[in-house]
Amino acid sequence: MTAIPRSALILGLAGLIPFLWGAANVAYPPSGQWIGPWLPPMFRGTYVSLTYGVVILSFMSGVLWGFAAKTSGAKAAVGYALSVVPALWAFFMVNGDPGNAAVNLAAGFAGLLMLDYFFSLQGLAPRWWMRLRVLLTAVVLACLAVPILMG
């Protein structure tokens, strides 16, 4: 099995910080004040998880697009079509009530993992891709469970 490149692992783990911060703010509300009153509300609690989650789902659409670009013909067309699903999901489904938005965002990340697996099966993702994606997705889903269950 191919190891996850160190830089990809470190940057992937660093990308979890906003999700962890949001979950901590919901689980322990005083933590939202640790960084001072100058930080806008969108960078605290459920809102930081929702805002950042939409950004990450959109970013991951671009990653999947890059995988699709490694092939051609009908296989590429299917890949391109599937690659836009996470961004469209985030745009249309992550809005309104924060609790419902968090549920929809979690569903988006679960769906993204299925798309990661599809691209991996096609041989378009690096061999280590699913090891990284399962790890990161597990943490994201655990973090999103906090506002869903406690909110």
UniProtKB/TrEMBL annotation:
Q: State the protein's name.
A: DUF3429 family protein
Q: By its UniProt entry, which InterPro entries does this protein fall under?
A: DUF3429 (IPR021836)
Where does the chain cross the membrane? 46-65, 77-95, 101-120, 132-150
The organism encoding this protein is Paragemmobacter ruber
Keywords for the protein's UniProt record, in alphabetical order: Membrane, Transmembrane, Transmembrane helix
